Amino acid sequence: QVHVVESGGGLVQPGGSLRLSCAASGSFRSISSMGWYRQAPGGQRELVTTITSGGSTNYADSVKGRFTISRDNAKNTVDLEMNSLKPEDTAVYYCNIEGAVTILRRFEVWGQGTQVTVSS
């Protein structure tokens, strides 16, 4: 079984910064993709950014140049550095991790979600 724990988030003023972290633990063979999604009140869950095991990244247009994703393959962690935050970044942020439990069995897990509120 794979477990994911998120940390970080909180209240920040517009223009401020926050850092989210996510750690995977449990029994698995490997982790492929790690990423962050968010869901604003009344909205659907949307992709923020992903990173592959090789370090290739993908960002939503709305966060390019402001957010940076990074991962530590040795520690099975993924971080999201968020700068120049805007009120429209307010949402619950979810960590997503995909990988393999065995050669034939894949897994996908979600974090519990952490609230990010950007407001003056």
Helix residue percentage: under 10%
How big a fraction of the residues is strand?
A: over 45%
Oligomer: single chain
Discrete helix count:
0
Radius of gyration, in angstroms, nearest whole number: 14 Å
Q: How many β-strand stretches? A: 11
Provide the residue-averaged pLDDT. 96
Q: State the end-to-end CA separation.
A: 41 Å
- Name the helix and strand elements from N-terminus to C-terminus, one letter apiece: EEEEEEEEEEE
Q: Residue ranges: pLDDT <50 for 5 or more in a row? A: none
Task: Tell me the structural class.
Answer: mainly beta
What's the story with the biggest beta sheet?
7 strands, mixed
User: Which term fits the overall shape?
Assistant: elongated
Q: What does this protein look like?
A:
The chain is an all-beta fold and 120 residues long. It contains no helices and eleven strands. It has strands at 2-8, 10-12, 18-26, 30-39, 46-51, 57-59, 67-72, 77-82, 91-100, 106-110, 114-118. Strands 2, 4, 5, 6, 9, 10 and 11 form a seven-stranded mixed beta sheet that branches. A four-stranded antiparallel beta sheet has the order 1-3-8-7, with no helix packed on it. The chain is elongated and about 50 Å long. The termini are far apart.
Descriptive keywords:
120 residues; mainly beta; 7-stranded mixed sheet; elongated
Give me the secondary-structure topology.
Elements: E1 2-8, E2 10-12, E3 18-26, E4 30-39, E5 46-51, E6 57-59, E7 67-72, E8 77-82, E9 91-100, E10 106-110, E11 114-118
Parallel strand pairs: 2-11
Antiparallel strand pairs: 1-3, 3-8, 4-5, 4-9, 5-6, 7-8, 9-10, 9-11
